[in-house]
Design goal:
The protein is an alpha/beta fold. It has 4 helices and 4 strands. The chain is globular. The protein binds iron/sulfur cluster. Iron/sulfur cluster binds next to loops.
């Protein structure tokens, strides 16, 4: 329950449990079993638009924080997050809107980094430590159907 004047903090997972890694300890990949068998995890534009509008307009606070997680949210591509920023734009005159992205970092390119910097995304990258430790449990997934994301 949200008290008067308090904001709500939502972690959005717009690619659901899809990830390009298959970490041995991941607690979230198994959530794929909760989805229909067509494995379409991508948040639709209609839902994204409704989420952004309702999340901002329902909050009494001057600051609204968006947190984007996965799975691996960069699988959605930069255009998805360009759309996020565009949908947030009508509200930036009245609210301070921030974005955070939690990623395994493996798909980040110079273009991604420029985009994230330009729009002030706070970026969290999950690492397990030095290479020999990191690579022990964080393995690349066999990705066979990227087009279904
Ligand atoms: S990178 Fe994160 S979401 Fe992907 S398999 Fe590893 S723990 Fe799970």
């Amino acid at each position: 329950m949200v008290g008067e004047g308090q904001g709500l903090h939502v972690v959005a997972k717009p690619i659901g449990p899809a990830c390009n890694l298959n970490c041995e300890y991941c607690f979230y990949l198994e959530k794929q079993a909760l989805f229909a068998t067509d494995k379409k995890y991508r948040m639709s534009d209609k839902v994204l638009s409704a989420f952004i509008t309702n999340y901002i307009t329902s909050q009494p606070t001057p600051v609204v924080e968006f947190v984007w997680q996965g799975g691996e949210p960069t699988l959605l591509g930069i255009d998805f997050f360009k759309r996020v920023v565009d949908l947030q734009k009508p509200f930036v005159q009245t609210k301070t809107i921030t974005n955070s992205l939690q990623t395994n970092g493996t798909l980040l390119t110079a273009e991604w980094c420029q985009f994230l910097k330009k729009h002030n995304f706070m970026v969290g990258i999950s690492l397990d430590g030095p290479k020999e430790i990191h690579d022990r449990y964080r393995r690349t997934a066999k990705v066979t159907e990227p087009s279904t994301w």
